[in-house]
Design a protein that fits this description.
- By secondary structure, the protein is of the alpha+beta class.
- It has one domain: 4-Layer Sandwich (CNF1/YfiH-like putative cysteine hydrolases).
- The protein is 22% helix and 26% strand.
- The protein has a 6-stranded mixed beta sheet with strand order 1-2-3-15-7-4.
Length: 260
Amino acid sequence: MITKTVNNTTYFLFENLLSYNSINHFTSTRLGGISTGHLSGLNLGYTVNDNPENVKHNFELLAYATAIPQAAIVFPRQTNGVNIGILKSVDDIFPDTDALITNVSGVCIGIRTADCVPVLLYDPVQKVIAAIHSGWKGTVEKIAKSTIERMMKEFGTQPRDLIAAIGPSIGPDVYEVGPDVIGYVKQAFTENTVLVPVKNNEKAFFNLWEANKQVLIESGIPSNQIEIAEMCTYSQPELFYSARRDKGKTGRLATGIMMI
């Protein structure tokens, strides 16, 4: 990951995606911005009881820092599901959608997070991009795999060509889940490489980073074409918002990608 700061607005760039001049991308932090109180910084969520004018201004700051026009950024209305949208125009609206795919240049597709995993995909051969919101539900239902399959069907993408990036999210040392989630994880991942039991209780730590990496590899992406930020939103309150750490009362980060 590469850190970049413009006018006090700090965001991250993935090294593997930076190799391509045909795209622009970002994954935000809370550094910069004008939101206050428990949302202090660059809150990019309109649904967290922030002043809408603050959020709008924060987007203006992000747009300036990333050189991606605010009007060019499209977010779906995420519901922690597995629905995938194909964007054909900047004016498209996507209710109940947790992943977007497009081959349209000049439009940035993005997703918002506050512990869940943001995943970006770029197909430099067919010129297609995807932005995926993968929480625990999306991870066990393998939304990233479904997104890749949709890219293959709609745009002729070959998984071996994809460049993938897994962004900042809650880390494997702190993401504790109960028996209900553990059951779903064990069904989805036969080799128990993504769960570490917690001593003296029925819970376990769930490694969302490794799980999503496994899904991408299972889908046909070479492991050396996958970059993991390995940055924990929960453990770094100075950098990131975290729904679990802040008991739901927190802001939203954003991760996006655009073909130039």
